[in-house]
Design brief:
By secondary structure, the chain is of the alpha+beta class. It has helices at residues 14-26, 37-48, 67-77, 88-104, 106-116, 118-129, 135-151, 153-156, 163-181, 194-208, 211-220, 222-232, 253-280, 314-327, 331-344; strands at residues 5-8, 30-33, 55-57, 63-65, 294-302, 305-312, 358-361, 364-367. It has 3 domains: 5-77, Glutaredoxin (3-Layer(aba) Sandwich), CATH 3.40.30; 88-250, Glutathione S-transferase Yfyf (Class Pi), Chain A, domain 2 (Up-down Bundle); 263-367, no CATH class.
């Protein structure tokens, strides 16, 4: 297959970063196309039905959307140097980090962007959307484009009241990751995993590139900065190895414990809310109507601070990835994963309560 892939993405975009880094590591031929206003209208809206990036158009004119599906589609075509470890502990941890990085790390990413990097982001949005305008015109377009993004802070749970807790959690996380990347090139050895690519999305697009956040990362976590740079320009494309004997380094235990402490309670509440919502709306079981993006609100606790946030259904579609993998494991392998989870305080994942199974049809989330 010699013809390249069309990649509609932007440096400023969280999930574009995840997919772009993957394609670079795999040496997949692609051309990146800036999503201007015209591109959104004439290509993305026409193919997907709503304005979103990243989007990939294949040489066969297929349309792929959603970073996890894009990567899995590529893995089927380019299987060499799989980004999914074979060991049960490493693979489960990588998949769980993917869920957390994709969905939960939006909280610090959006908080820092719109409270500390707003002017930079507005300029970036305007420049990308309307490269034909002068600086003043781009600024006006950027302000308009920024409204729904900045307006999402409250739905994510990022408010003036929770801001200090978000910053403490994120900056402590930087310290944990810095200690890990001081000893390891990537999460599980010298080869990046799906967890690395997902983590790169927020840490590159929002926290490394945005100027105020970039200064924080450089000051607190120089080894994370070096990891970001390795992910941006992989030193060994399609190379590297996962650690032998399915080792999950001790340096990752604080990160896994943070996931279980902060995010697992949110996932449990979300599953409970989805189950109640589908029971109250049995017409959704046919899978013909898309699920709402959010189902009301619930409380969450971060660093001792309680806030309120929207209940996002997409988190549970993502959670099916590690849970489905766990369900395939034989006893010895399952026990190894559960032992790892117990060490991190996440044993509830092993018996996560059932909830309606979700799938995506026509780029929308539905009940399967």
């Amino acid at each position: 297959m010699t013809k390249g892939y069309e990649f509609y993405g932007a440096e400023v975009s969280y999930f574009s970063g995840k997919v772009r880094a993957y394609m670079r590591y795999k040496r997949i031929p692609f051309s990146e196309i800036t999503p201007t206003r015209d591109i959104y209208r004439n290509v993305i809206m026409a193919r997907v039905g709503w304005p979103v990036i990243p989007v990939v158009v294949t040489p066969e004119d297929e349309t792929w959307q959603d970073s996890s599906e894009i990567i899995d589609n590529f893995e089927a075509r380019f299987p060499e140097a799989s980004i999914y470890p074979e060991g049960p502990r490493q693979k489960f941890a990588a998949l769980m980090i993917e869920v957390w990085a994709d969905e939960w790390l939006k909280l610090p990413a959006m908080h820092y962007r719109w409270t500390k990097n707003r002017d930079f982001a507005v300029k970036e949005f305007g420049r990308l959307s309307r490269p034909d305008l002068d600086e003043a015109g781009q600024r006006a377009v950027g302000e308009e484009t920024a409204k729904p993004f900045a307006g999402a802070l409250q739905f994510l749970g990022a408010t003036p009241e929770t801001g200090p807790a978000i910053e403490k959690s994120y900056e402590d996380l930087l310290g944990e990751l810095d200690a890990h990347f001081a000893k390891h090139d990537f999460l599980f050895g010298t080869r990046p995993s799906i967890g690395d690519f997902s983590l790169y999305g927020p840490l590159y697009a929002h926290q490394y590139r945005d100027p105020a956040s970039g200064e924080i990362m450089k000051r607190l976590a120089p080894h994370v900065v070096k990891w970001v740079q390795r992910m941006s320009k992989p030193p060994h494309p399609k190379g590297g190895e996962f650690l032998p004997h399915d080792e999950v380094p001790d340096t990752l235990v604080p990160v896994l414990a943070r996931i279980m402490r902060e995010y697992l309670p949110v996932l449990l509440k979300t599953a409970e809310a989805l189950k109640a919502y589908v029971e109250a709306h049995p017409e959704l079981i046919s899978g013909k109507e898309p699920l709402p993006r959010a189902l009301g609100t619930h409380e969450f606790t971060l660093e001792g601070t309680t806030g309120s946030r929207a209940i996002f259904t997409f988190d549970l579609w993502m959670l099916q990835r590690p849970l489905d993998f766990l369900a395939t494991l034989r006893k010895e392998q399952r026990d190894a994963v559960i032992s790892m989870l117990e060490k991190a305080g996440g044993e509830r994942l092993a018996d996560f309560p059932p909830y309606p199974r979700l799938t995506r049809r026509q780029f929308r989330l539905v009940v399967e």
